[in-house]
């Protein structure tokens, strides 16, 4: 059986990122947050655009004020008032200064700003009471960014700071990757939609809701295809349709060894290449990952509707509700990140934190235990969810925000011992 990290590497290897020309759209900067930039941005503007003052005070020639003190102030004549937004008209001559405000243009001739608190004023004369640093409080043209060089690279997620940079660089619209399309369906004769009355043996299809939420949180677009019966014909039709409309397909259930677990058999009959069938992890052992090298030949009608020229990546997630969530976080999320055009950092990252509780595993599979990270005196501590860690139990997954990981062979983590955790974005 494959180790979890080998499975992640295989999956990431299979993912073809969206195309930086074909798979893009133009969005308004106000709606661009969390989108992935598709084209590098350069600006014709320097930052700052011109030398400007970092303080309210006086623009001076350093030469004039280099021996100033409270006892021996330098006295300068104020020749101009320069608020922010104005272009100075005068050139500061020896013995002169300009009144200046934060963000205003430094006048020609001046090279240093003295903050207001280090001065005193008498009509049009200013007394410099302290020697400033040469070039002090001047924000020089192009000292933050030089026009024509790369301002932002492609493949980054746009958060508030990047959006502020793009606004300052006068980019009201930009090219971002389209959202990856992720088709989701559930398999099982026992599954009912949320609004149906339940007969004995029946349960609500909760995986569909969980996966739709996870996909949306990842920045992708969920295509919700509903419930498919444990019936080979229905399943084949559903898979063929899903791979025609999506970049990634997520099914849940039907990947174990039971008589009604048809997913792998149907994938084989569709000539899919199955890369993964089981992973050494708990929960989440039966996990199927497949690609479709030649879908167009098998399903010409569906192929006409294809939205992507990439081969779709198929995840047959195990049906148990906890297994669905854990395998999504551990394997599907990195795949969506790489697909979405993010240039790097797709792999799962772990934090080392202190465990509050005793954590146990049989040591036979890499074990994921759900719980909550609490901040104790500024240090994260992992508290295991109380109740059953059965992969069929979804109730105590609510209100958790982390998964603690016990590697293969590790059977015990004692209270106050360090543990690796995967921090979940739903915290
Ligand atoms: N003989 C073996 N049996 C099982 C093994 C094994 O190695 N040998 N593995 C177990 C593990 S681990 C898991 S995980 C499950 C995976 O099973 P399947 O992927 O085949 O899923 P199902 O059998 O269809 O369902 C399992 C379980 O999950 C419930 N379920 C399914 N879909 C949904 C849904 N959409 N919403 C809510 N709950 C769902 C289903 O009712 C079952 O209880 O196999 C073990 N068995
Ligand atoms: O993967 Mo299964 O979830 O261990 O029950
Ligand atoms: Mg099964």
TrEMBL record:
PANTHER family hit by this protein: GEPHYRIN (PTHR10192:SF5), MOLYBDOPTERIN BIOSYNTHESIS PROTEIN (PTHR10192)
Keyword Methyltransferase set for record: no
Cited PROSITE patterns: MOCF_BIOSYNTHESIS_2 (PS01079)
Entry annotated with the keyword Metal-binding: yes
The reaction(s) this protein catalyses: adenylyl-molybdopterin + molybdate = Mo-molybdopterin + AMP + H(+)
Domain of life: Bacteria
First and last residue of the signal peptide: none
Protein's UniProt name: Molybdopterin molybdenumtransferase
Catalytic class of the enzyme: transferase
Cofactor(s) this protein requires: Mg(2+)
Sorted UniProt keywords: Magnesium, Metal-binding, Molybdenum, Molybdenum cofactor biosynthesis, Transferase
Protein family according to the UniProt entry: Belongs to the MoeA family.
Function per UniProt: Catalyzes the insertion of molybdate into adenylated molybdopterin with the concomitant release of AMP.
Domain MoaB/Mog, residue spans: 183-338
Catalytic activity, EC: 2.10.1.1
Biochemical pathway: Cofactor biosynthesis; molybdopterin biosynthesis
């Amino acid at each position: 059986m494959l180790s979890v990290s080998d499975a992640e590497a295989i999956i990431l290897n299979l993912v073809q990122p969206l195309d930086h020309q074909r798979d893009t759209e133009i969005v308004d900067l106000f709606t661009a947050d969390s989108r992935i930039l598709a084209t590098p941005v350069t600006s014709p503007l320097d930052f700052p655009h011109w030398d400007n003052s970092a303080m309210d005070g006086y623009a001076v020639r350093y030469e004039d004020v280099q021996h100033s003190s409270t006892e021996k102030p330098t006295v300068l004549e104020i020749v101009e008032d320069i608020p922010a937004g104005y272009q100075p008209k005068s050139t500061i001559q020896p013995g002169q200064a300009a009144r200046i405000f934060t963000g205003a243009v430094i006048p020609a001739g001046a090279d240093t700003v003295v903050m207001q608190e280090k001065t005193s004023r008498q009509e049009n004369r200013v007394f410099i009471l302290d020697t400033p640093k040469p070039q002090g409080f001047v924000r020089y043209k192009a000292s933050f960014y030089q026009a024509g060089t790369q301002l932002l690279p492609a493949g980054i997620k746009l958060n508030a700071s990047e959006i502020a940079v793009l606004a300052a660089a006068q980019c009201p619209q930009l090219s971002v990757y389209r959202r990856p399309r992720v088709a989701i369906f559930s398999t099982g004769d026992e599954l009912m939609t949320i609004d149906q009355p339940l007969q004995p043996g029946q349960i609500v299809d909760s995986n569909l809701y969980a996966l739709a939420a996870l996909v949306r949180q990842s920045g992708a677009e969920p295509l919700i295809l509903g419930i498919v019966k444990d019936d080979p014909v229905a399943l084949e039709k559903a898979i063929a349709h899903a791979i025609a409309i999506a970049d990634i397909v997520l099914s849940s259930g039907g990947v174990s060894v039971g008589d009604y677990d048809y997913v792998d058999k149907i994938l084989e009959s569709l000539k899919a290449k199955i890369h993964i069938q089981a992973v050494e992890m708990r929960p989440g052992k039966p996990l199927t990952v497949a690609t479709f090298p030649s879908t167009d030949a098998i399903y010409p009608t569906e192929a006409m509707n294809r939205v992507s020229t990439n081969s779709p990546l198929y995840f047959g997630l195990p049906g148990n509700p906890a297994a669905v969530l854990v395998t999504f976080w551990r394997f599907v999320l990195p795949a969506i990140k790489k697909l979405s055009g993010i240039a790097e950092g797709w792999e799962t990252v772990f934090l080392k934190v202190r465990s509050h509780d005793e954590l146990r595993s049989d040591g036979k599979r890499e074990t994921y235990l759900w719980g909550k990270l609490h901040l104790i005196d500024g240090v994260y501590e992992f508290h295991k969810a109380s109740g059953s860690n059965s992969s069929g139990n979804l109730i105590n997954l609510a209100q958790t925000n982390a998964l603690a990981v016990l590697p293969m062979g590790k059977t015990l983590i004692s209270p106050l011992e360090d543990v690796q955790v995967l921090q979940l974005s739903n915290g």
